[in-house]
Amino acid sequence: MKQTIYLFALLAALVVASCTEEERDYTGSIQGIVTESGTTTPLSGVQVSVVNLGTSTTTGSDGQFHFNKVEADSYQLQFKKTGYVTNTRNVNVVAGETANCDMQLEPEKKEAEIKIEPSTLNFGTTQTELSVTVTNQGNAATEWSLNLGDNAWLTASPLSGNIAAGKTQSIVFTVNRDQLSATQNVKVILSAFGNSYTISVSCAPKSAKSEMTVTPTSLDFGETEQEKNITIKNTGNATLTWHISGITEECISVSATEGSVEAEGSKVVKVTLDRTKQTKDLNTSFVISDGIKEQTIAVKAAKTEAKAEMKIEPTLLDFGYESAELPLTVSNTGTAELKYTVSGISADYITVSPMEGSVAAGGNQILQVKLNRETMPETVNTTFVISDGTNQESITVKATKAVAKMSVSPLSLDFGEEATEKNFTISNVGTAELAWTITVPEGTGLKVSDTSGVTAPSGTKQITVTLDRSIMPETLNTAIEVSDGTRKESVAVTAVKGSDIAGTVVTQGLYTYYKFDGNFDDATENKINGFGTASPAFVEGVTSEGKAVKFSKTDNSTFVVAKPIIDSKEMTISFWGKDFSDGHIFHLNSSINTEPMFTLSVSSGSLKFLVTRYNNIHQYNALPSFVHPTLTDGKWHHIVLVSDFEVTKYSTITTTLYVDGQPAYVLTENANHFSENGGSQSSYNTGTSFTMGGSLKLNNSLTLPATNMSVDNFRVYDTRRLSASEIKEIYNAKQ
After folding, report:
1. What is the mean pLDDT of residues 543-564?
2. 129-136: strand order across its sheet
3. Which residues pair with 191 in a beta bridge?
4. Helix (H/G/I), strand (E/B), else coil: 270
5. In 3D, which of 432, 490, 423 has the Cα closest to residue 461?
6. Given 377, 392, 535, 704, which residue has the most CB atoms within 10 angstroms?
């Protein structure tokens, strides 16, 4: 019996022990209080979340929170309240114990800010009292004051005050129309937080009235449209102030929410539908008000399924002759995300990056297409494809390898008997830089301005070829070779030695030519030789190789030709001279009384050239002189006179002076004022002899004195007026 009782007791103990183990509690709790940072003020309405469990609670007015029956473990708590910085804290829960987790939250830092609603007050023609609400959106109290300006018709109450953080205050504005004669549109200033805030106030006198009409009053965007316009018109005689309110849908926006319209004016407001934000079919409205009248604008729009729309720009990539990288843009003009891939690149010298990607609705992505110009063929014309899975766009790639191409023109140069300089041109008609070389045959007297060079695409290079006639053969028939390393062009060159004045430039029409190289002989085939009187000296000429004749004022030395060296009404006289002083340079005697014509002298430091016998004898002092650069600086100067005698009634003679290759002055000389048949011709007449240097008696009252001077290369072109380029050629040749 004792044994039986013992076994029963043992069994009962085991049962009790087993039940205790199963019912043991493995949970704890979390509690705490949330206060404002730096204070002991409890914060109510704080959302406290156990992040790991996804459970949350809210603090009461005492700032306290509790979580019960929380399994023993480590947890993260999050504390969140509008206007405060969200914070977290970790806590360990032990079975059977309460974990304390207090928290202090810092207020969010806000800029000091005042909000005024509405910011525009329109009293229209009837309203006498309107109010605004001033809200302190900062985190500190502020003093404020209102400045109404010089507007006696407008009052407000209060005009100043203090607003605590987060609080509002109303200001009542009142108008007295008895003080108004016209519509007023003014701005008053509210000062707070050291800033200024504007309130627009408009009021019409009793007689003024605005009238608002809005069209259309219904906007239906359908399934695709995203933008529509409404027009606010003022058909009255006072300024209309309008305001839009009541927009409740995030996807609807307007270009302006308030404004004013002058009498008889209008304002267009753009209404935009952002279909990316549209979540359903729309059937909504908003209100346009002028303070008296309200107009409701109905808005409808159907919600369509989001869809990507791919657009590629450009679809032709022309790399031309130089480019190695070009961009193209993949745009998504639809309302859903776009995924694209690049395929179909058959050429290993073309790469595209990236080869695939995604583009958000309304966005774009730039792809870089690269061309390896080293491995590409001469010409490229290939394609690749960009696809969005539904549609695809073919992209064309074109390119051309740059190649230089040489052109030479002309391919022949004929120097004839006289020329010493010719030109030809090397042109690059290709697309790459052209490197060229020139080979000139030896022993020909030929030289080129450049023997090598590089010319850019579409560029040209002029090559000047000069011929030294002193060392050229009797007959020249050769070629100058131009090479670009691949091909060659030959420029044929021909020339002949010429006459006894070979090497002389501009020989056409050359009637007499006195070089003064130790004699007074004419170098032309005309052989109109002269002689010297009173022993003019031969000195170094324009060039060290030649001579010049020097005349002495003291000796009255001259150079005389017993025959006329010119006998034409159209002529050119060219010579080099220096060391001039006032006096006679040269003249031609007329067959009438051996009176002078074609007289050149220096008068008061200026050159004077008179053609006719009449002007020399009777009008010398009355005719003007040339204006020209100084000729008294002791240096050689090239002087050219180009003259014509137009045989007409009341004839005039035009003479152009060139100094050192450049035109210096044009002088017009009137012939004697006789009739054509009564002596004008005799005023010119026929020449008999030519004299250079010494003195000259013009008439009974005037004698031109002799001058010290040196002269070289005296030329006369009978019946020819040389061109400016020919004169320049003589100057450059120092002849």
Report:
1. 95
2. 114-117, 129-136, 168-175, 154-157
3. 145, 196
4. strand
5. 423
6. 704
For residue 436, what pLDDT is reported? 97
Q: Topology of 406-496 in CATH?
A: Immunoglobulin-like (2.60.40)
Q: Phi then psi for 428, rounded to 5 degrees?
A: -105, 100
Q: Which residues pair with 212 in a beta bridge?
A: 234
Q: With 90 as the cut, is the pLDDT of residue 11 above it?
A: no
CA-based Rg of the chain, rounded to a whole angstrom?
Answer: 54
| 392-440 pLDDT per residue, tens | 999 999 999 888 999 999 999 999 888 899 999 999 998 889 999 999 9
Please give the CATH number for the structural domain made up of 114-203. 2.60.40.10
Averaged pLDDT for residues 106-124:
84
User: Cα 314–318–322 angle (5° rounding)?
Assistant: 135
If you classify domain 212-301 with CATH, what class do you get? Answer: mainly beta
Domain with CATH 2.60.40.1120 in the chain: 27-105
Q: Which residues pair with 612 in a beta bridge?
A: none
CA-closest candidate to residue 118, choices 128, 105, 133, 108: 133
pTM: 0.38
Highest mean pLDDT among 127-136, 500-509, 643-652: 127-136
> Would you state the pLDDT for residue 2?
44
Q: Are 415 and 422 in contact (CB under 8 A)?
A: yes
Cα distances (Å, whole numbers) of residue 420 to 494, 497, 572, 661? 12, 11, 22, 17
Every domain range in the chain assigned CATH 2.60.40.10: 114-203, 212-301, 310-399, 406-496
Q: In what order do the strands lie in the sheet with 350-353?
A: 310-313, 325-332, 364-371, 350-353
SS3 225: coil
> Residue 3 pLDDT more than 80?
no
Cβ within 8 Å of residue 709, ≥6 positions away: 550, 551, 577, 578, 579, 580, 581, 585, 693
DSSP three-state, residue 631: coil
With a CB cutoff of 8 Å and minimum separation 6, the contacts of 519 are: none
Fold of 27-105: Immunoglobulin-like (2.60.40)
Bigger pLDDT: 112 or 29? 29
Mean pLDDT of the chain: 90
- At residue 680, φ and ψ (nearest 5 deg) are -60, -40
Pick the CATH number of 510-733 from 3.60.21.10, 3.40.50.12280, 2.60.40.1570, 2.60.120.200: 2.60.120.200
Residue 75 in tokens: 């947890």
Quickly state the pLDDT bin for 4 (edges 50, 70, 90): very low
Residue 687: exposure state from Cβ atoms within 10 A (0-12, 13-18, ≥19): buried
C-alpha span between 521 and 516 (Å, rounded): 7
- Given 3-state DSSP classes, what are the helix, strand and coil percentages for the chain, each rounded to the nearest 5? 5, 50, 45
Q: Percentage of the chain with pLDDT > 70?
A: 93
Q: Does domain 310-399 have CATH number 2.130.10.10?
A: no
Contact 622, 699 (CB under 8 A): no
Q: For the residues 653-678, what does the mean pLDDT come to? A: 80
Q: Which residues pair with 35 in a beta bridge?
A: 42, 104
Handedness of CA 648, 649, 653, 654 (dihedral sign): negative
Is 169 within 8 Å of 133 (Cβ atoms)? yes
Phi, psi of 16 (to 5 degrees): -60, -45
Give the per-residue pLDDT at 23.
Answer: 54
Among 14-23, 136-145, 376-385, 387-396, the least confident range: 14-23
pLDDT tens-digit profile of 148-170?
Answer: 999 999 999 999 999 998 899 99
pLDDT digits (tens, 9 = 90+) for 46-61: 999 999 888 999 999 9
Using CA atoms, how far residue 681 sits from 597, 613, 648, 668, 673, in Å, is 13, 10, 10, 18, 11
CA distance 270 to 229: 5
Bridge-partner residues for 279, per DSSP?
A: none
How many residues appear in the chain?
735
